[in-house]
Protein backbone atom coordinates (compact mmCIF):
# COMPACT_ATOMS: atom_id res chain seq x y z
CA UNK A 1 0.00 0.00 0.00
CA UNK A 2 1.46 3.41 -0.91
CA UNK A 3 2.02 6.02 1.77
CA UNK A 4 -0.63 8.27 0.26
CA UNK A 5 -3.42 5.75 0.68
CA UNK A 6 -2.79 5.33 4.41
CA UNK A 7 -4.73 8.09 6.22
CA UNK A 8 -3.02 10.31 8.78
CA UNK A 9 -4.52 12.45 11.52
CA UNK A 10 -1.90 15.11 12.30
CA UNK A 11 -2.22 16.65 15.76
CA UNK A 12 0.11 19.57 16.45
CA UNK A 13 0.31 22.17 19.18
CA UNK A 14 2.35 23.42 22.12
CA UNK A 15 3.46 21.21 25.01
CA UNK A 16 0.83 20.54 27.66
CA UNK A 17 -2.21 21.16 25.42
CA UNK A 18 -3.29 17.52 25.85
CA UNK A 19 -1.98 16.11 22.58
CA UNK A 20 -0.44 13.02 24.18
CA UNK A 21 -3.65 11.97 25.92
CA UNK A 22 -5.88 12.79 22.96
CA UNK A 23 -3.71 11.10 20.33
CA UNK A 24 -3.52 7.91 22.42
CA UNK A 25 -7.32 7.96 22.74
CA UNK A 26 -7.80 8.56 19.00
CA UNK A 27 -5.37 5.78 18.04
CA UNK A 28 -7.06 3.35 20.42
CA UNK A 29 -10.58 4.27 19.27
CA UNK A 30 -9.69 3.95 15.58
CA UNK A 31 -7.30 1.00 15.96
CA UNK A 32 -4.57 3.04 14.22
CA UNK A 33 -0.83 3.38 14.81
CA UNK A 34 0.54 6.22 16.94
CA UNK A 35 3.59 8.40 16.39
CA UNK A 36 4.83 10.41 19.39
CA UNK A 37 7.35 12.53 17.49
CA UNK A 38 8.29 14.54 20.58
CA UNK A 39 9.60 11.31 22.10
CA UNK A 40 12.12 11.04 19.24
CA UNK A 41 13.51 14.51 20.05
CA UNK A 42 13.52 13.66 23.76
CA UNK A 43 15.31 10.36 23.03
CA UNK A 44 17.89 12.13 20.87
CA UNK A 45 18.63 14.53 23.73
CA UNK A 46 18.78 11.70 26.28
CA UNK A 47 20.98 9.46 24.12
CA UNK A 48 23.33 12.39 23.43
CA UNK A 49 23.67 13.16 27.14
CA UNK A 50 24.40 9.51 27.88
CA UNK A 51 27.04 9.34 25.15
CA UNK A 52 28.68 12.58 26.27
CA UNK A 53 27.67 14.43 23.09
CA UNK A 54 27.21 18.12 23.84
CA UNK A 55 23.80 19.63 23.07
CA UNK A 56 25.43 22.23 20.83
CA UNK A 57 27.48 19.70 18.83
CA UNK A 58 25.30 19.58 15.71
CA UNK A 59 27.26 16.90 13.83
CA UNK A 60 27.40 14.72 16.95
CA UNK A 61 23.64 15.12 17.50
CA UNK A 62 22.88 14.20 13.89
CA UNK A 63 24.90 11.00 14.31
CA UNK A 64 23.00 10.21 17.52
CA UNK A 65 19.61 10.91 15.88
CA UNK A 66 20.45 8.81 12.82
CA UNK A 67 21.51 5.80 14.88
CA UNK A 68 18.85 5.90 17.65
CA UNK A 69 17.93 2.38 18.74
CA UNK A 70 14.35 2.93 19.93
CA UNK A 71 11.19 0.90 20.29
CA UNK A 72 7.66 1.86 21.28
CA UNK A 73 5.64 -0.87 22.95
CA UNK A 74 1.88 -0.39 23.33
CA UNK A 75 0.92 0.07 26.98
CA UNK A 76 -1.80 -2.10 28.44
CA UNK A 77 -5.21 -0.35 28.75
CA UNK A 78 -4.80 2.92 30.65
CA UNK A 79 -0.98 2.73 30.70
CA UNK A 80 1.26 4.98 28.57
CA UNK A 81 3.21 3.56 25.63
CA UNK A 82 6.53 2.07 26.86
CA UNK A 83 9.57 3.72 25.33
CA UNK A 84 12.81 1.75 25.02
CA UNK A 85 16.24 3.18 24.25
CA UNK A 86 18.96 0.60 23.50
CA UNK A 87 16.55 -2.01 24.84
CA UNK A 88 16.10 -0.33 28.27
CA UNK A 89 12.87 1.27 29.49
CA UNK A 90 13.19 5.08 29.56
CA UNK A 91 9.45 5.87 29.63
CA UNK A 92 9.72 7.98 32.79
CA UNK A 93 13.15 9.41 32.17
CA UNK A 94 12.19 11.08 28.88
CA UNK A 95 9.19 12.83 30.50
CA UNK A 96 11.19 15.04 32.86
CA UNK A 97 11.15 18.83 32.40
CA UNK A 98 14.89 18.85 31.75
CA UNK A 99 14.63 16.22 29.02
CA UNK A 100 11.80 18.22 27.41
CA UNK A 101 13.90 21.37 27.48
CA UNK A 102 16.92 19.56 26.06
CA UNK A 103 14.67 18.12 23.34
CA UNK A 104 13.59 21.61 22.33
CA UNK A 105 17.26 22.67 22.10
CA UNK A 106 18.21 19.84 19.74
CA UNK A 107 14.95 20.31 17.77
CA UNK A 108 16.09 23.78 16.69
CA UNK A 109 18.72 22.21 14.39
CA UNK A 110 17.50 21.49 10.86
CA UNK A 111 20.03 18.65 10.25
CA UNK A 112 18.78 16.89 13.40
CA UNK A 113 15.19 17.25 12.15
CA UNK A 114 16.24 15.88 8.75
CA UNK A 115 17.86 12.88 10.43
CA UNK A 116 14.55 12.04 12.13
CA UNK A 117 12.26 12.72 9.16
CA UNK A 118 12.13 9.35 7.40
CA UNK A 119 11.92 7.51 10.73
CA UNK A 120 8.73 9.48 11.43
CA UNK A 121 7.26 8.84 7.97
CA UNK A 122 7.90 5.10 8.40
CA UNK A 123 5.15 5.08 11.07
CA UNK A 124 2.59 5.62 8.29
CA UNK A 125 1.26 2.07 8.09
CA UNK A 126 -2.14 0.57 7.37
CA UNK A 127 -4.85 1.04 8.55
CA UNK A 128 -3.88 4.60 9.58
CA UNK A 129 -1.68 6.82 11.73
CA UNK A 130 -2.35 9.37 14.45
CA UNK A 131 0.72 11.64 14.60
CA UNK A 132 1.50 13.89 17.58
CA UNK A 133 3.99 16.76 17.34
CA UNK A 134 4.78 20.31 16.30
CA UNK A 135 5.20 19.93 12.52
CA UNK A 136 3.13 16.87 11.64
CA UNK A 137 0.69 18.81 9.45
CA UNK A 138 3.20 21.34 8.10
CA UNK A 139 6.32 19.27 7.31
CA UNK A 140 6.20 15.55 8.07
CA UNK A 141 2.73 14.70 6.70
CA UNK A 142 1.65 17.75 4.63
CA UNK A 143 -0.81 15.54 2.71
CA UNK A 144 -2.62 14.39 5.88
CA UNK A 145 -6.38 14.57 5.26
CA UNK A 146 -7.06 15.55 8.88
CA UNK A 147 -5.04 18.24 10.66
CA UNK A 148 -5.78 19.44 14.15
CA UNK A 149 -3.93 22.18 16.03
CA UNK A 150 -4.61 21.61 19.71
CA UNK A 151 -3.78 24.49 21.98
CA UNK A 152 -4.56 25.90 25.46
CA UNK A 153 -3.51 28.99 27.38
CA UNK A 154 -0.03 28.89 28.95
CA UNK A 155 -1.63 29.26 32.42
CA UNK A 156 -3.92 26.30 31.88
CA UNK A 157 -1.04 24.16 30.59
CA UNK A 158 1.12 25.11 33.58
CA UNK A 159 -1.77 24.26 35.93
CA UNK A 160 -2.24 20.82 34.35
CA UNK A 161 1.49 20.09 34.50
CA UNK A 162 1.66 21.31 38.10
CA UNK A 163 -1.14 18.93 39.12
CA UNK A 164 0.55 16.00 37.34
CA UNK A 165 3.92 16.70 38.97
CA UNK A 166 2.39 17.33 42.40
CA UNK A 167 0.60 13.96 42.17
CA UNK A 168 3.97 12.39 41.36
CA UNK A 169 5.44 14.04 44.48
CA UNK A 170 7.70 16.53 42.65
CA UNK A 171 8.74 19.80 44.27
CA UNK A 172 7.86 22.51 41.72
CA UNK A 173 6.14 25.89 41.70
CA UNK A 174 3.46 27.10 39.28
CA UNK A 175 5.58 30.13 38.42
CA UNK A 176 8.62 28.03 37.46
CA UNK A 177 6.45 25.83 35.24
CA UNK A 178 4.81 28.84 33.62
CA UNK A 179 8.22 30.39 32.92
CA UNK A 180 9.48 27.11 31.40
CA UNK A 181 6.36 26.70 29.26
CA UNK A 182 6.66 30.25 27.94
CA UNK A 183 10.37 29.81 27.18
CA UNK A 184 9.72 26.53 25.36
CA UNK A 185 6.79 28.04 23.37
CA UNK A 186 9.00 30.95 22.41
CA UNK A 187 11.77 28.62 21.19
CA UNK A 188 9.37 26.28 19.33
CA UNK A 189 7.44 29.09 17.61
CA UNK A 190 10.32 31.33 16.66
CA UNK A 191 12.90 28.85 15.35
CA UNK A 192 13.73 28.92 11.65
CA UNK A 193 13.40 25.13 11.24
CA UNK A 194 9.78 23.90 11.19
CA UNK A 195 8.41 26.48 13.64
CA UNK A 196 5.34 25.55 15.63
CA UNK A 197 2.28 26.96 13.83
CA UNK A 198 -1.04 25.62 12.58
CA UNK A 199 -1.02 24.30 9.00
CA UNK A 200 -3.17 26.46 6.72
CA UNK A 201 -5.72 23.66 6.51
CA UNK A 202 -5.67 22.73 10.23
CA UNK A 203 -8.69 23.02 12.50
CA UNK A 204 -7.69 24.83 15.69
CA UNK A 205 -9.14 23.45 18.93
CA UNK A 206 -8.54 25.39 22.15
CA UNK A 207 -8.76 22.94 25.05
CA UNK A 208 -8.73 25.66 27.76
CA UNK A 209 -11.65 24.91 30.06
CA UNK A 210 -12.66 21.73 28.19
CA UNK A 211 -12.68 18.22 29.65
CA UNK A 212 -10.64 15.46 27.97
CA UNK A 213 -13.90 13.90 26.76
CA UNK A 214 -15.01 17.20 25.18
CA UNK A 215 -11.69 17.61 23.38
CA UNK A 216 -11.77 13.99 22.22
CA UNK A 217 -15.33 14.37 20.87
CA UNK A 218 -14.34 17.52 18.96
CA UNK A 219 -11.31 15.77 17.45
CA UNK A 220 -13.44 12.78 16.41
CA UNK A 221 -15.92 15.20 14.82
CA UNK A 222 -13.10 16.87 12.85
CA UNK A 223 -11.78 13.44 11.80
CA UNK A 224 -15.27 12.43 10.68
CA UNK A 225 -15.63 15.51 8.43
CA UNK A 226 -12.56 14.65 6.34
O1 LIG B 1 5.86 17.04 22.55
P1 LIG B 1 7.05 17.01 23.47
O2 LIG B 1 6.93 17.92 24.66
O3 LIG B 1 7.42 15.62 23.87
O4 LIG B 1 8.26 17.57 22.59
C1 LIG B 1 9.50 17.94 23.18
C2 LIG B 1 10.16 18.99 22.30
O5 LIG B 1 10.52 18.38 21.04
C3 LIG B 1 9.27 20.18 21.90
O6 LIG B 1 9.33 21.24 22.84
C4 LIG B 1 9.82 20.58 20.56
O7 LIG B 1 10.89 21.48 20.71
C5 LIG B 1 10.36 19.30 19.98
N1 LIG B 1 9.49 18.75 18.95
C6 LIG B 1 9.61 19.24 17.67
N2 LIG B 1 8.87 18.69 16.66
C7 LIG B 1 8.01 17.70 16.91
C8 LIG B 1 7.85 17.21 18.22
C9 LIG B 1 8.60 17.76 19.23
O8 LIG B 1 10.37 20.15 17.42
N3 LIG B 1 7.32 17.18 15.89
TrEMBL record:
| Originating organism | Marinobacter persicus
Recorded hits in NCBIfam families, A to Z, give:
cmk (TIGR00017)
BP-aspect Gene Ontology terms: nucleobase-containing small molecule interconversion; pyrimidine nucleotide metabolic process
Subcellular localization is given as: Cytoplasm
State the name under which the record lists this protein: Cytidylate kinase
Keyword Transmembrane helix applies: no
Domain (Cytidylate kinase): give its ranges.
9-222
Binding locations of ATP:
13-21
